[in-house]
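the two lines:
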Amino acid sequence: MSNQKYFAARAALIAAALGAFSIGLPSAAAEKPSQKAQANAAEFARGARLWAENCNRCHNMRDPKDYRDEQWRPVIAHMRVRAGLSGDQAHAILRFLQESN
Amino acid sequence: MELSNATFARTLIAAGMLLVLPDSAAIADDGLGLLKREVNELRKELAEVKAELKQQRKQAASKDEVSVVENKVARVERQHGDWKDTNSTLHVAGYADIGYADAQNSTGSFNQARFNPIFHFLYKDLLLLEAEAETGISSTGSTEFNLEYATMDLFLTDNITVFGGKFLSPMGYFRQNLHPSWINKFPSAPIGFGHDGAAPEAGVGAGVRGGFGVGARSQLNYALYIGNGPELASDGSELDGVKSGGFTRDADGKKVIGGRLGIVPIPHLEFGVSAGGGKTSVTKDEGSGTAIVGDAARDYTVLGADFAYQRKQLDLRGEYIQQRVGDASASVAPRGGTWKTWYVQAAYRLLPTKWEGVLRYGDFDSPHDVQDQQQWGVGMNYLFGPNLIAKLGYEFNQGQSGTVADDNRLLLQFSYGF
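prediction for all of em together
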């Protein structure tokens, strides 16, 4: 992956896109997104921001595509310890990575 | 398919009804003719529908075929679920590097071939076992093996992780967070941050660590531990150095307590302070290699401060750390001393290329003047990827003249964090 800027931009874009979705579009659909789906979208957006803010503090930003979903689980547990993240923050970052790989 | 089935059924019923109609005289001749024509047309239609149905049957998958596909889908789903939701997950990460060094007054050599796998076992979201097995080739050709760390992290609450085992020293920053070669932006560690330097390397013990989000963007992180503490090496009647690689014995009988508090006031800016203290004692004479038993326990303290800042292509960081050993009149090496070091480093990505320039300055001060050193490091890296990096560095070293500490070095390194 080319550079950190690209990552930050992609994260911001995804976050922005999700934000727009959860506020603006539901009326077009027959059913409103469930509360759970909205919570997931919010966590994803939060994860994207936390990832962009935290994951290049010590080393170059790693590509979400570096690992499969289940591989990110122990890696993020490892990074939670290293980076001193709360469980809640680590969980949001994990969701972001698992949905961006 | 549904539609033609319905048509087919309707046609059948109509045909049946017509065929069983009574041959009554009441029906006029032309009426009969009409009926016959209609029956013939219906027969034709029926034949066509039959043919169409046959054709469709041919094209449609058989029940058996469908069930084979269904089974396959179920198997893939099961396998995928296996990956995702197991209680225990194993993952192997780590890093490997190769290198070349050419120092003044010595012959250049390919001086590095290391393979450091890190095993992660995650049990649910409760426990992480992290262990790094550092292996490398020594200058004499033997294989060196070092259990760099083997730590259990129990995620107790959202903000508290209890850990224990052998761990990289929670005091200071470089050893813990920056030493792997795919992370370190220069081919060598800053002076005083290697083995037997000023920065504590590892601990054996237990502790708590974690972090909190504070407000929208700020964070606090902490680590606090208790451990066996380091041991000392003497050289005759003088202290030679602090051995902080981690021991499963506690020769002086008194524990060391230490930790670090980190503050991230805004994203990409971090400050940390580290402190620790306890007792230590001499256990080895470095000159003769003999073990020393029952030497006097003496004070041991650690103090450190670190910062890191990233903005756009710039990565700026620095750290100060010192280990102080007190006097002990009853010891084989009575006089204490302080090992201290600091460095600052700036790395700059030359976007849009994959090149990165690095500049580093460090100053290491030990109780032995012969170990003292100042160093400028200038480097150029090529990033094949965020975790695949080729490094070229030049160290301008200043130490006591005539010692290796005074020899400049050219370094090449290629590192892969996997």
